[in-house]
Design a protein that fits this description.
14 helices
């Protein structure tokens, strides 16, 4: 999504050349986009990075001189750093510099997280480290909701993933509290209507679901993960047909569902003990599914599905070669048959697209990657 503004401007200029948008309309739309800003720029990225680095520089300095300070001075200094971050955020917000306001909020939250650890050390509080991360992500979530900060919500999601990782025991120790925490932060993204949050939430949930394959069933629950992914694929496809206005959610969901099934399939084939017939069956189903993803992506202009299909196909073929490298004849025969099948499918797709292009005046150009 970070290149969305650039692509939109290119599309608007192309629409003008095609005669779909007037010259005045092109000018007005481009001016409106300029007023809104590009969302993520070099200045904003550097501002956020600088805020995090400054926060940890200050906290490192405080930690280095920790023993030289009285308890009262320590507490007041820590609270002052957090308050200074929020004060700076308010200053930038009143002047319409939202991205620098987010950077200041991240500074305050970084100072807040470091304060939790330092105060625990100062008062010799015996608690598990995950509890400190729990308090940290709760603070980031509250700040994100109350201050309407997407950066704070993104930090909260990262901290929830860290919290879950610290609380997870392999195998069998699934940290189910991740789900309500994930749902709360995702609801915050939805309330803010922040599109990158869809990808952050999708990535976090995908990682959690994939981990279930290694945590449940004595570490062999990958078939269950594949089933969850398939259900998610069907749900995303149905949603894209019934509610196309929510394509900004259903399209990424489809991509993450495909990735979930792909990860489960790799585990089933190469991490679990499988017979030759099971390996052939899983490989055939995986390759067929990846080709279907590529076909769907080409037909519906879903770049994510296309590239996931390409990447997954490459990983699958290379993994099969590694798995069967001991039997050269069988390996060469497999690649010969697979190559002929894919070549035939490519020819059929080309013929279909060529016929479609001839009857619709050049639509094929829109399907290029």
């Amino acid at each position: 999504m970070f290149g969305h503004g650039k692509r939109l401007r290119e599309d608007i200029r192309r629409w003008h050349r095609e005669g779909w948008v007037t010259a005045n309309g092109e000018t007005q739309i481009l001016q409106e986009l300029s007023r809104r800003g590009s969302g993520v720029s070099l200045a904003s990225a550097l501002g956020i990075l600088a805020s995090v680095l400054l926060a940890f520089a200050l906290m490192s300095f405080v930690a280095a001189h920790w023993n030289e300070m009285s308890r009262g001075f320590r507490l007041s200094l820590l609270l002052s750093l957090v308050a200074a971050g929020y004060a700076a955020a308010g200053f930038f917000e009143t002047r319409g510099r939202e991205i620098f306001s987010d950077a200041a909020i991240l500074f305050a939250l970084a100072a807040f997280g470091a304060s939790i650890m330092l105060i625990s050390q100062m008062f010799h509080i015996d608690g598990s480290p995950p509890d400190g991360v729990l308090a940290w992500w709760l603070g980031a979530f509250i700040a994100g909701v109350l201050l309407h900060s997407n950066a704070a919500l993104a930090l909260a999601m990262v901290l929830v993933v860290v919290w879950t990782g610290m609380e997870t025991d392999f195998p069998g120790g699934v940290h189910w509290p991740f789900l309500p925490a994930w749902a709360a932060i995702t609801a915050g993204f939805a309330w803010h209507r922040w599109t990158p949050g869809v990808y952050i939430s999708g990535l976090a949930l995908t990682g959690f679901v994939v981990s279930l394959g290694y945590l449940l069933g004595l570490g062999n629950w990958h078939a269950g993960v594949a089933a969850i992914g398939l259900v998610a694929i069907i749900a995303a496809l149905v949603a894209s047909k019934l509610a196309p206005e929510y394509d900004a959610v259903s399209a990424p969901a489809l991509g993450f569902a495909i990735a979930t099934v792909g990860c489960a399939s790799i585990a089933l084939q190469f991490f679990e003990k499988t017979t030759t017939s099971e390996l052939i069956l899983y490989a055939a189903l995986t390759l067929a599914g990846l080709l279907a993803a590529i076909g769907y992506g080409l037909a519906n202009h879903h770049r994510g599905a296309i590239w996931l299909g390409y990447i997954g196909f490459s990983i699958e073929v290379l993994s099969l070669y590694w798995k069967t490298v001991g039997t050269i004849l069988d390996t060469s025969l497999f690649f010969l048959v697979a190559g002929l099948i894919v070549a035939g499918l490519a020819f059929m797709a080309w013929r279909l697209a060529h016929r479609f292009d001839g009857s619709n005046g050049g639509i094929e150009r829109g399907a290029r990657i």
